[in-house]
Amino acid sequence: METKKLQLFILLLLFPAFLFAQGTSSIKGKVIDEQTDESLVGATVMIKGTTNGTITDFDGEYLLNNLESGDYTLLVSFVGYNSKEAQVTLSEGEEVVLDFKIATDLIGLDQVIVTGVVNQKSAIESSVSISSLKPKAIEEFGAVTTAEIFKAIPGIHSEATGGEGNANISVRGIPITSGGSKFLQLHEDGLPVMQFGDISFGNADIYLRADYTVARIEAIKGGSASTFASNSPAGIINFISKTGTIEGGSIGTSLGVDYKSFRTDFDYGSPIGNDVSFHVGGFFRQGEGPRKAGYTGNYGGQIKANLTKNFKSGYARVYFKYLNDKAISYMPMPIKGTGTASDPTFESIPGYDALKATLQSPYFQHLTGVDGNGNLRTSNIADGMHPISYAVGAEFSFDLGEGWNVKNRARMAYNKGTFNSPFPVGIGTASDIASGIAGAGFTASYANGANAGTPLSTGELQNLNGNGLLMTIHSFDVEMNSLNNFANDFYITKTFNDKIHLTAGYYKAYQQIDMTWLWQAYVTDVSDNPRLINLTDAGGIARTESGLYAHGVPAWGNCCTRGYDMRYNVDAPYANVGIDVSDKINVEASLRYDFGDVSGYYLNNMQAPVDVNRDGIMSSIDSTTTVLNNANPNPVDYDYSYLSYSVGVNYKIDDNMAVFGRWSVGARANADRLLYSPYITAEGKTLEGLDADEISQAELGFKFKSKNYALNLTSFYALLSEQNSEFDKIFYIDYQSYGLELDGAISFGGFEVAAGATYTKAEIAKSNNPEQEGNSPRRVPDLMYNISPSYRIGGASIGFSVIGTTKVYSQFDNVVVLPGFAYVNAFAGYNITKGLAIRLNVNNLFNTFGITEMEGDAFVDGATNYMRGRPLTGRATNFSIIYNF
Q1: Torsional sign, CA 364, 365, 370, 375
Q2: Which of 216, 614, 629, 836 is 20 to 30 Å from 698 by CA-CA measure?
Q3: DSSP string spanning 305-320?
Q4: Per-residue b/e over 236-251, b at no fewer than 16 CB within 10 Å?
Q5: Could you please report the per-residue DSSP string of 36-51?
Q6: Is the dihedral of CA 149, 151, 154, 155 positive or negative?
Q7: Ranges of H-type helices in 372-457
Q8: Rounded to two decimals, what is the model's pTM?
Q9: H/E segment holding residue 12
């Protein structure tokens, strides 16, 4: 008997959510889409002012039972829809049927923001500019890669032509001096994927994948991002996962129609009793990719899972992720340029289709060289970008009573991988390239494939592949030995009189950056599947071995055989005060102090004779092998600190309209890109004032929503001071930019138009190269935009997106222009029966030729120029069949 009493006591202690007052009345009904009359699965129905609520089932139905008689206000909410309230009076024993029709929240203004804030409010009540992408919008946008999804976010400039990752991402005219996303952080469930967004060859987007586990993507631009996340003053893009609140899932298979690709996505989640729910999902894929590499360039997948326990006063959650996914990396490609530098025409070179070809080739995969210790090493270009990540995390949030709330997120990620891709260094006539390596009187032949070893005649070289060109290649062969990181974000909030919210928090993080760069130099032809070229000099001495002409990169001063192991410890206390001055006005002010401790070492390189292939012969190539100088490591030991603050005010004119203003000052600590630069002293210290880059930003915005229209309009002004280095190029530049950002939508019946645009005027205010002052930053357009109309009737849907940009300058000198372009993605879908749908997506429908970035090659007006640029990928069509259950 005593045992049963003890069991009952434990059950009551563990599951207080069951201890609601019991009654005999109930409310039931259905929640449906106002425009389509479709049932909404997973909508939340709450009794306002209580924690009593439920969610709709697979038929969109809900039930609130065991209620006492009285007056109630029901609040219905669902991701992507406007919230709705209704009053109901219950008599003893009565069952009331109350259905809800809710309208689409066109741009997410009714959605409660969870990214870059601690005092969570709906977007229309918040003094920040935020955009939200729902899974449906992501699917219809037609992005081939995760990086391309970012183009659908107003204010975000994503150069996503590099493949699945390694995109250059900037915000509102803040330029891309180097690669990655230096001033913007990519998050998963509220914590950064990497502590620094621009780690060389370890960009955060390489370790991030979009799949069916994503509930939505939130992006905050500027605003409070600087004070609620480290190293992200320009914004945060947050991938928010599903949590299995309601039972259901989906499985989908996608096939490339005009390219080789196969992918299966799945997810499933459900409550499992005792207020516990779970969600699991992921994907597996294999295929060549949208460009014709001639081998399987994409292979691997991801699995994510979480388990949530809900309590009456909060929840606790654990999280797991495993990513192991090879993805091909597209570097700049050979491009022909004619006309003038200020008004050029770029197109494919005969024999090389820049829309579909790639530098990767079945004839150029196996690499032989030395490792970081000078030992024989082989690698494979086909491994591409190969991130491997094991991540575990935990999160809890509790209402402690009397206005106290506490929340904590933590995650440990074990990251490693490789980055392997060919990079073009020089493009020229076969005679010029070959004689530059082997001298006059050279002999050239293919190193493998058909007619390998047979000398090519002068006539054959002059007409090789219809272009008569060769190119030199550097193999970007990088070992990401460890990018392990840890993050913990804890904060506690005290609310006074439901008006004043005081928050104090502490962020602790760690990031290791342990890499080895083992680059080599090759020569190939210029063709859709480039082939390696062997060269011998006039004396018959081989100047290449299987197309390799140097164990190193002599064209770049042998800069890039590197090794380093760095540790970054980050601490950041922060505070926020939110004041609800009235029902219409709220004020937010926040402060953050980041300080870090950096230690580690980096290795220079040297030239040494090494019999690389161990054949007992010291060839001319072996005699000057670039190796790491392990005997003389350069120590690094410095501290950094910076202060960030942000103040914002929001005035809610009425339930559908608001204005806001905000001033923010933030910064971003520099990481591995300080190495091998004059910014690090011989003692391993940073030069004073160069350990962090500062951004000051002002914003003024207007938000409006109605049943058929929604608009978020934000004007901005930014000042940026940046120090950076990229392959021995040193940048010390101040920028200023201003502009206007628009996020809007129109909806009538089954017709909807979503649109985003950003107008920017940016210039270089100060530079270590004074001739650049007054110029526009490279690759920052005056206008970038996307317009996405769609139409739904019955079970059918059709639509397209126009994504465009005005011209940009390829470099800071503002000499070579990259013309503006607009391309079209299209989709069509049909619901065959309940839960079963098919969809066709076409990326770059009209094969638009556009260049997103270009190397600093000289352009001679009126001549034919061979340039290196990253073009849009040509048309890629994808067919999917999806079953939701």
Answers
A1: negative
A2: 216
A3: EEEEEEETTEEEEEEE
A4: bbbbbbbbbbbbbbbb
A5: T--B-TT-EEEETTSS
A6: positive
A7: 430-438
A8: 0.91
A9: helix 2-14
